[in-house]
Amino acid sequence: MSQTTRPLAYVHSRTAVLANENIDTDRIIPARFLTTTERTGLGKHCFEDWRYNADGTDNPSFVLNQPASRGCSIIVAGHNFGCGSSREHAPWALLDFGIQAVISSEIADIFRGNALKNGLLAIVVSAPEHRWLIENPGVELRIDVASGTIRLPDGGTIAFDLDAFARHCLLNGVDQLGFLTQQDAAITAFEARMEEAA
């Protein structure tokens, strides 16, 4: 089924830093919450085992529970974010929690593909750029999807790669099936030409 997401041209936010390396998809959304095919409602379980104490109360030591992280829609994560098993629920949980972009020095390929297909920016930057972002939590960034740049507070920029198709889908708020649906007239015309040529 085609899913539409909100068009995403810019993300402007302070950063929350999760410096842990190898944060896997089971950490992002534990397997026990994968019983739904709905995109909404998973945010309350995002990072469940870090966010909550055994009695269900908020864990005050977890960075996303701290006052400085309130309202942050950009996570700067440690190396190799999103590794582990493939599950679209991981980007769904992050989006439902309010995260619009994840930045790391390495993001697992399958997670990155799932993220971009679902409207979550998954950005890979160089090791020195990543180190600076890790060491400066709470910095305000402006991410420009069209130009593939992250603007820093001092006016400098970090460039990131984003393939043309992913960029188109993000800017237009469509997934792969939605993109094909938009081409319906062209597909119909092509089929008509093929029938005439047969």
Question: What is the topological layout?
Answer:
Elements (H helix, E strand, L loop, with lengths): L9 E9 L6 H4 L19 H4 L22 E4 L11 H9 L3 E4 L4 H9 L3 E4 L2 H9 L4 E5 L4 E3 L5 E3 L4 H9 L3 H7 L1 H14 L1
Parallel strand pairs: 1-2, 2-3, 3-4
Antiparallel strand pairs: 1-5, 5-6, 6-7
Characteristic terms for this protein:
single chain, 198 residues, alpha/beta, Aconitase, domain 4, 7-stranded mixed sheet, 7 strands, 33% helix, globular
The count of domains is 1
Q: What is the average of the pLDDT values?
A: 90
Number of extended strands: 7
Helix amount: 25-40%
Strand content: 15-25%
What is the third-level CATH name, the topology? Aconitase, domain 4
Give the uncertain stretches in residue-range form. Answer: none
Characterise the protein shown here:
- It is built from eight helices and seven strands; from the N terminus they run E-H-H-E-H-E-H-E-H-E-E-E-H-H-H.
- With 198 residues, it is α/β, with parallel strands linked by helices.
- It has a single domain, classed as Alpha-Beta Barrel (Aconitase, domain 4), CATH 3.20.19.10.
- Strands 4-3-2-1-5-6-7 form a seven-stranded mixed β-sheet.
- Strand 3, helix 4 and strand 4 form a beta-alpha-beta unit.
- It is globular.
- The model has no long low-confidence stretch (mean pLDDT 90).
